[in-house]
Recover the amino acids of this structure.
């Protein structure tokens, strides 16, 4: 089930919190005059411990882990914050990170982040952050004049050079994977062009622009005579950014576009964030400290109350209420879907509390209009290629070419795959007309979107739809082939919503994707009635009915073959040996493993996961972000190590169940490169269509088509990086690593050069392979 | 892996992102072009091999 908290579906009293801010150090080495922690109304920091004691860190981690387990959260984001979290020092930071991972990672994927002023960042701290897979956001306000307007030491000295040095450290290849981006606080007295250029010069993966904290009691500075100075200032940067082809992700602008998804500061998405102060108290979002003394308090702490209890605080729930939690003015506003009333803290006014529009209301209205109106239709932005009207395609491809993608890029790839599946589903609905299953799925898409997403991201939904929509079945598929009833039943089960549908039977079995299959005790019938019950389902009715409980602690129901979930560090993987649509790999897939073999494969996968994290953390992050299922291939003693990826089955790889985690690690990394590139090729043409050219490659005797060479080169790049890492580590068990590294390097280099010379690549493909070639040199492999 | 398929126009990244925020029941209407492009691009016979990326030959030396 999706959630074990006992609440029906995702509504009711179920309050899932997925973001936690830990104030691990409550003092700061800068003295910024715009800081809400020290300079605004709330002064609670004065009574708090300087650093969060280890027992408090562990208690907070246990609460977060408990919440992730109860609500089956796929990921939690923990942000180390302060004060200045780097004041912990390398040893203190290591201790905190190790505690968080040890307690939380067994239950969910843990996304660790830190928000720092960067002043103290050095090689050693970078090493700790990279080792623990922590992504670093740096507060930096732009050019020297802009930055030093507020971001100064207590003695008044500039922090500009210190922060730039930190950003340069994060740009180094060894640290780049930990560089999350820059957080810049707006001051309209600064020159927007100079700020924009200074931010771009630091090559951040992402920039966020923050309006200075203010309330109706304490309105923002409005120098000059314009009514909307903040919208004008940001509008200037927006125009530069669009004209430049959106060379970096700017979260504020992306969030404000129609369908942009919003942030804590904008939009109607629930604010699912809680703060843990250094003394262990649960607080609401930090920015509330700008409102009044104690505004963020809940009266709870991690020792006495769970996340669920803290999340039921009225100040948290109101921010999860969408448009209903806003003032009457905002509820009637035409841009409320994008603005969402602005940041909660900015609504405060003594007397009416938070029941007001944002103090930035006029600026927000104007900025939303500006973002929507520019570029006007037909506008050619600078010299950017056409794709840039959609997204900074160069940035996306450049990142992917190096094998060091940001989380945003990985999330984007996964989102496009889900979107394609949803479009195929809509095509299926057009073909079949309205059905009860479609109605249920469409209803759940609005009422319990997480449950629908969980089933639609299953790797074998798309192969299923492709087969049913493909040419061979265009003249009306038999009803038993309809994928919708099983998908809708699974979504209802995950959402805890009662439902009853007729589900197709195939070979005496009903298949419930992601959950398992049920062999029916009786033969005959093309379909069977399935009723969703709390914690399980019933099939059939009358004397033939059977109730299947999905409680893993209960006795195994007769005929039920659950899809096995095996733990790997930080999350679970599905061993998919039951879904009939897994046979899309062009080679035989194994039938259901016995329990011992499944456990053994699970152990190998868990160990291999650790090996990938050890050898190539950037590729581990990519696996963490996207791999959900592993399909066992039929063993073949003559070819014991085989693996495969199917273009339609994003999120899964197929492998022979080897017992060697070192070999499995290479298979996983190799295959995930194919999966990523397959998703890219759904979006972009990297190879000229219809090319009859065939290319000689070093790893096979036969001539290959260009796309095959591209896939081979991309996979070999990652395998080169694995072996290079092993060669550098000089472990006794990897004495052959330098030879492997050299061989894969030469294969990748020669393959890339052959592609570049073949004139079969599109301009985007040319750039992609060029960047890949460059990344190869940066792997520091010796003479190949 | 051994195919260099003919490609129709690709689904635009922005359309894909926006359609994620469109209720399932309205996708066919509000993103009719996207649905058509995805059908053309993804379904067998139009572009990519639905088949595998078998890589046994690539990693036989692992
Ligand atoms: S623009 Fe103003 S009225 Fe509209 S939602 Fe935002 S704060 Fe509310």
């Amino acid at each position: 089930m999706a959630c074990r908290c006992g609440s029906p579906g995702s509504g009711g009293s179920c309050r899932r919190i997925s973001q936690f801010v830990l104030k691990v150090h409550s003092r700061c080495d800068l003295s910024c005059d715009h800081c809400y922690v020290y300079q605004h109304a709330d002064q609670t920091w004065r009574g708090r411990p300087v650093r969060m004691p280890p027992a408090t860190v562990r208690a907070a981690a246990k609460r977060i882990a408990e919440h992730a387990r109860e609500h089956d959260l796929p990921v939690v984001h923990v942000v180390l914050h302060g004060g200045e979290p780097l004041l912990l020092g390398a040893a203190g930071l290591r201790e905190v990170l190790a505690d968080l991972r040890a307690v939380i990672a067994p239950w969910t994927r843990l996304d660790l982040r830190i928000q720092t002023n960067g002043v103290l960042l050095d090689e050693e701290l970078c090493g700790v952050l990279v080792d623990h897979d922590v992504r670093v956001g740096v507060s930096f306000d732009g050019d020297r004049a802009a930055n030093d307007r507020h971001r100064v030491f207590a003695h008044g000295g500039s922090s500009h050079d210190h922060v730039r040095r930190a950003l340069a450290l994060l740009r180094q290849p060894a640290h780049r994977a930990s560089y999350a981006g820059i957080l810049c606080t707006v001051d309209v007295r600064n020159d927007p062009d100079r700020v924009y250029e200074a931010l771009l010069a630091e090559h951040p993966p992402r920039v966020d622009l923050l309006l200075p904290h203010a309330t109706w009691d304490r309105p923002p500075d409005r120098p000059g005579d314009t009514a909307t100075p903040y919208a004008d200032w940001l509008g200037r940067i927006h125009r530069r950014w669009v004209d430049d082809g959106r060379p970096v992700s700017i979260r504020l602008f992306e969030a404000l576009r129609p369908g942009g998804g919003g942030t804590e500061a904008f939009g109607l998405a629930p604010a699912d964030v809680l703060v843990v102060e250094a003394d262990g108290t649960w607080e609401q979002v930090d920015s509330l400290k700008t409102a009044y003394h104690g505004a963020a308090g809940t009266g709870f702490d991690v020792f006495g109350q769970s996340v669920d209890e803290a999340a039921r605080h009225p100040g948290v729930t109101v921010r999860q209420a969408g448009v209903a939690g806003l003032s009457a003015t905002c509820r009637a506003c035409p841009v409320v879907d994008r603005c969402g009333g602005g940041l909660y803290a900015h609504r405060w006014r003594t007397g009416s509390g938070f029941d007001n529009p944002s103090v930035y209301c006029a600026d927000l209205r104007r900025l939303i209009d500006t973002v929507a109106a520019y570029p006007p239709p037909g506008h050619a932005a600078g010299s950017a290629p056409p794709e840039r009207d959609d997204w900074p395609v160069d940035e996306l491809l450049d990142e992917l070419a190096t094998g060091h993608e940001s989380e945003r890029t990985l999330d984007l790839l996964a989102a496009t795959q889900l979107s394609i599946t949803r479009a195929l589903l809509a095509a299926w609905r057009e073909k079949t007309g309205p059905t009860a299953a479609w109605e249920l799925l469409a209803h759940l898409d609005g009422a319990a979107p997480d449950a629908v997403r969980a089933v639609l991201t299953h790797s074998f939904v798309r192969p299923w739809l492709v087969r049913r929509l493909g040419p061979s079945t265009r003249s009306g598929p038999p009803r038993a082939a309809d994928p919708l009833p099983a998908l809708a039943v699974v979504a209802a089960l995950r959402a805890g919503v009662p439902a009853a549908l007729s589900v197709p039977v195939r070979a005496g079995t009903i298949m419930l994707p992601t959950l398992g299959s049920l062999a029916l005790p009786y033969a005959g019938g093309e379909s069977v009635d399935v009723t969703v019950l709390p914690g399980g389902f019933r099939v059939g009715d009358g004397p033939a009915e059977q109730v299947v409980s999905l409680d893993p602690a209960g006795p195994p129901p007769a005929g039920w073959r659950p899809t096995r979930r095996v733990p790997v560090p930080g999350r679970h993987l599905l061993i998919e040996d039951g879904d009939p649509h897994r046979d899309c790999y062009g080679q035989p897939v194994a039938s259901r493993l016995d329990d011992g073999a499944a456990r053994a494969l699970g152990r190998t996968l868990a160990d291999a996961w650790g090996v990938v994290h050890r050898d190539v953390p950037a590729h581990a992050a990519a696996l963490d972000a996207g791999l959900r299922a592993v399909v066992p291939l039929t063993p073949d003693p003559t070819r014991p190590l085989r693996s495969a990826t199917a273009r339609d089955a994003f999120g899964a790889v197929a492998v022979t169940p080897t017992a060697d985690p070192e070999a499995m690690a290479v298979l996983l990394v190799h295959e995930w490169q194919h999966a990523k590139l397959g998703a890219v090729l759904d979006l972009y043409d990297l190879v000229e269509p219809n090319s009859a050219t065939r290319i000689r490659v070093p790893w096979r005797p036969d001539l290959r088509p260009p796309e095959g060479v591209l896939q081979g080169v991309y996979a070999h790049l990652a395998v080169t990086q694995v072996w290079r890492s092993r060669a550098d580590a000089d472990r006794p068990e990897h004495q052959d690593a330098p030879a492997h590294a050299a061989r894969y390097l030469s294969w990748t280099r020669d393959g890339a050069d052959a592609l570049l010379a073949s004139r079969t690549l599109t301009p985007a493909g040319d750039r992609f392979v060029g960047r890949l070639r460059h990344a190869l040199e940066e792997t520091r492999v010796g003479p190949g | 892996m051994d195919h260099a398929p003919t490609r129709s126009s690709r689904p635009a990244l922005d359309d894909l992102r926006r359609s994620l925020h469109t209720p399932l029941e309205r996708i066919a209407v509000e993103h009719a072009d996207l649905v058509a492009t995805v059908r053309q691009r993804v379904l067998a016979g139009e572009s990519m091999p639905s088949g595998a990326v078998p890589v046994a030959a690539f990693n036989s030396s692992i």
